[in-house]
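Deliverable D4.2, example record:
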Amino acid sequence: MDFDTVRPVISGIAGSFIAAGILALLAKYLPYSNDLSRQRSIEGNHRRVTQFANVGAGIGIVTGLIFYLGGIFDSNDWRGFGIMMGLTGLLPVTVILFANLLDGTEQIREGFIAYSLSQKTPPVVLFPLLVGMIIFGICATAYLF
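Output generated by the structure prediction step:
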């Protein structure tokens, strides 16, 4: 096994350590970081919603894998990846919105905060990332036609 085959694995492991370190530094920016009982309360109230949102994100990833492994897109076609990223961002947002729609805007807000807490990612990082993923998915979908 030469270095060229191992290099992507080393790069991926190093990147994951760097990302984990950055998120650990940003943990103080999580909502209610000083009030752990409030965090637990919000997470407990929205546990099912965040679980279904995570399932939605998983469906987006599996859809992307099906696109490439099923031969729908060539391995060098970026549109399949874009659609996968768009679905991975859109499905959790849609689940949180529709699950809390009848309970008002405060519950929708708490649902997004609960999702942020479950991902252990501050909202200032998570939500722009989700929006960017959705925009990328829209662009990839637009290039299909």
